[in-house]
Amino acid sequence: MVVGTNRPTKLIIDRQAIKNNIVNQQAKLNDGTEIFAVVKANAYGHGLVGTAYTALSAGATGLCVAILDEGLELRRAGITEPILVLGITEPEQAALAIENDISLTVGSLEWFKRYREIQSNGDVLKVHIALDTGMGRIGFRDTDELSKALNVVQGEDFNFEGIFTHFATADEQNHDYFIHQYDQWKKLISVVNPLPKYVHVSNSATGLWHTNIAGNMVRMGISLYGLNPSGKVLTPTMNLQPALSLVSHLDFVKQLHKGESVSYGATYQAAKNEWIGTIPLGYADGYPRAMQGFHVIIDGGFCEIVGRVCMDQLMIRLPRKLNIGTKVTLIGNDGDKSISATDIADYVGTINYEILTGLSDRIVRKYIN
Ligand SMILES: *Cc1c(COP(=O)(O)O)cnc(C)c1O
């Protein structure tokens, strides 16, 4: 992907915000509970390597990624702390994980069988066992299969390093399903003896709203970036400081006469003579096409997005003639106005995670603080 370093559109990542979020989370946890920063999907759009180093410098002791390649990129960048791949890696790729000291998630006996068929050279693979307590995604679901797998993973070709589960509803008002999953967890974990080094059940939402739950490591994702895992449903139990801003500038300004239209489909007509500004950012950058009618911030005031968002450009209605080069904030604060990734998500009917991870590599990332 070509990065737009010669374009005014930028993602500004405030490292201090990430650090503050980690320190605030740490303060809520029992002594000795570690934080692994979840930096999958380009660190939720914040930039994989820059975010990983920032999180580690603030006290995170390890990193979680979704796929092996993300872990390999972190190792190439010189990171030596523990890295866990949360998804399933093919047994054929496990040698790469061993070579790079990356821990893999295993969720079935079948995986161990396939692995042992191809790997017989005595190398030691670090493994976290996934338990499916109700997420219905990956992991062991019953104690019989789990017990068989425990026999295998206690062999000399494995370092049984962790065991975990993932909650489906930790960000919801109603706790019934959460409690159901926790009961399943207790049932499954009762056959695990001895316990491995890392016992982890907490994503961001669990770390915010269920802090009394057992475990000695938290997988901190969305809250690391300062966003509320529940969107606007639950109130965070600690200060969350959003780390990412999306800014650009006006690169074209003109006056439309009453009745003239803007963008594809000519869906917007000027109600009177209006000043219209153009911004070099569009849906190919991950700013959703459905944002027509929403707003951006200029000089501490909202300006409406008019006409359809194009692939690489969008248009806004200005309060008056403004100069080319005038700063525009699409996510972040300006004066007393702010727009969060959650606001954008709500407008298009999705969640802040999808907005952040959709921000494309074409937008240059700048780190501050
Ligand atoms: C992505 C992921 C997380 C992080 O989730 P957040 O809601 O962003 O905190 C934690 N654990 C697992 C297994 C995940 O896949």
Strand content: 25-35%
Counting H and I runs of at least 4 residues, what is the number of helices? 11
Summarize the main sheet. 8 strands, parallel, barrel
Listed once per kind, the bound small molecules are: pyridoxal-5'-phosphate
Mean pLDDT: 97
Number of strands: 20
First-last Cα distance: 27 Å
**Strand order, largest beta sheet:** 2-3-4-5-6-7-8-9
Quaternary class: single chain
CATH homologous superfamily (4th level) name of the largest domain: Alanine racemase
State the gist of this model.
The chain is an alpha/beta fold and 369 residues long. 27% of the residues lie in helices and 27% in strands.
What this model shows, in words?
Substrate binds at residues 137, 311. One of its GO terms (cellular component) is cytosol. This protein is elongated. The longest helix has 14 residues, at 15-28. The chain has 11 helices and 20 strands. The protein is α/β, with parallel strands linked by helices and 369 residues long. The mean pLDDT is 97. The chain starts with 9 loop residues before the first strand and ends with a strand. Strands 2-3-4-5-6-7-8-9 form an 8-stranded parallel beta barrel. The protein has a 5-stranded mixed beta sheet with strand order 19-18-10-1-20. The structure holds pyridoxal-5'-phosphate. Residues 38, 40, 86, 166, 203-205, 219-222, 229 line the site of pyridoxal-5'-phosphate.
